[in-house]
# Entry
Amino acid sequence: MRHSHIIDLRSDTVTLPTDEMLEAARHAKMGDDYYCEDPTVNRLQELAAQKMGKDAALLVPSGTQANLISLMSNCNKGELVILESESHIYWYEVGGVSSVAGLLPWTIKSAKGAYDPDDLKAPIRPKNLSYPEPSLICVENTHNRHGGTVITADQLGQISSIAKQNNLKLYMDGARIFNAAIALKTSPDKLTKHVDNMMFCLSKGLCCPVGSIIVGDKEFIGRARKIRKLLGGQLRQAGIIAAPGIVALEKMVDRLRIDHENAKLLAQKISKIKGINIDINSVQTNMATFTLDSQIDDSVFLNKLKEQGVLALPMSKNKIRLVTHYGIERSDIEKASVIIEEALTGYDL
Ligand code: TLP
# Structure
């Protein structure tokens, strides 16, 4: 191995808690969250609801569970849910949308994550004896498989009016909503005001070891609380995980701009390498997603990187993702780009 430390660009989920988070966990006041008696969980939930401009919030173990609970709290079994065709819910959540929530996913393609309002007409049809009832539109912001792209407040506003006109709910998988807000130079509540409810993750770029938060109105969060229990996600003395969450919301948000700068720098550097195709305009937050020329074997490429201490994530055939996060410095970006270039030498490109 050429480098003494691993440059892990697979995901921002690999981040470790900061010392301040560990200290906060150690000193957290705790109680049984079944009785809503964990003061630290209560404080985190209030803070989260306030930041997202909603009435109430619920801490849950993971983003996947947050999405599943939200689908089940927004819809009845057998209803139709509109998902973006590259969405995390559709690709990476074990099909819980169908197998557990009992919903029919109707997928719509988009350029960078935001639906073209005209495309929503296909699943939202006039009532008919044969059609399943559409009840929910989901959006993902930032959009993972589109390369961390953002959906603007205007775009959300347009989707929201269509949802309202047709009596549908609008839900946002905002796993990385703070990345979106920072890239758009706005506050998260300016984005979330267009959706009925949403979730965001503490355990990605914000560095918490665990946890996601669902936010929405009181009635919705009440239903979500019961479904969390149904799915086995009831927490007890969860102050120990809520305390790092409070540190995350108070101290770790602003620094995400550094991750965005690093992703841009990385994208610019690798865009000059033969064999790599990257759309620089899609590099809007902390991800640089690219494709390799077809004559390159992606697993050979990934192994060459790994041997030199760089980890990257395969997304589909020849589509690779690099994610910047806390712990990845500018010098790591410089090193990683050299290693990527070296891994692609020797090909007839
Ligand atoms: N995404 C992970 C992997 O599953 C791909 C990652 O490394 O990016 N929504 C979005 C948009 C996500 O990116 C993820 C995690 C989730 C939901 C699920 O969160 P967790 O992993 O906490 O269940």
